[in-house]
């Protein structure tokens, strides 16, 4: 477990490299998402909760919550049987638990809408949405099973695709 | 004679009970507490020291409610914490007879918590502080 944490923290992409092709990326291209939490743990969040990136852009999650561990985990059957909420052909990811100041990165290449969650905080609505390029009109969003098993707090926390497309970045509420 | 014996026995038993309580408290007043308590950061992926709570120990058999024993940076016990899932607060479920090994309680805090590894649903932290309000600062950071 210790080695795993260090690998994620140091490389910011060890596990991503296993799941997705690794490409060199300029520092400017990295889009950062902060995992945050209030002292005492009453409120937790991804910031931004909604983000628009370009195909092939690196996305990096970093845990800035000093009192908690978080994950960035794609909604996909490969992750504990969750419903699929990433584009067809895209690779799912799971950061594993990130302790304070640890990070994890993935490169998202397939255009579409990607929804993800934090394993210990899904019930509390700690979820996020990334749009790569422009959202397709016939993605997973049209599948009736996409909401199966998701807690109401999570379903209510996803920012609208239209809002992300309009703003490029949506702050947590 | 019988009365004296009864009084003696009562005093003896009372003394033993008091000594047992003191022994129990003394085994947890400094970190690490005796088995079956284990460090929470070795049971779940959590920071070793949690700001606002301290360094936590728990008997895994008592999860999720606890009690969790919380220590400051010098290894001194500051609080006993119970973590009660909100979904378990129903007409048909309760948490009875939770042990309180930490001794005298100065004051109590009750807070909502969104969850964390080990207790991955929203729950209430019930914090039995064994130190004064001012001394909570010992585990603030």
UniProtKB/TrEMBL annotation, chain A:
Show where the Blue (type 1) copper domain sits.
42-132
The alphabetical list of record keywords is: Copper, Electron transport, Metal-binding, Signal, Transport
> Transport among the record's keywords?
yes
Pfam families (alphabetical): Copper-bind (PF00127)
The cross-references to CDD domains, in alphabetical order and at most eight, read: Halocyanin
Q: Which domain of life is it from?
A: Bacteria
Metal-binding recorded as keyword: yes
Query: Signal peptide: which range, if any?
Result: 1-27
Q: State the InterPro entries in the record.
A: BlueCu_1 (IPR000923), BlueCu_1_BS (IPR028871), Cupredoxin (IPR008972), ET_Amicyanin (IPR052721), TAT_signal (IPR006311)
The terms under GO molecular function for this entry are: copper ion binding; electron transfer activity
Q: What is this protein called?
A: Plastocyanin/azurin family copper-binding protein
Say which species the protein is native to. Chelativorans petroleitrophicus
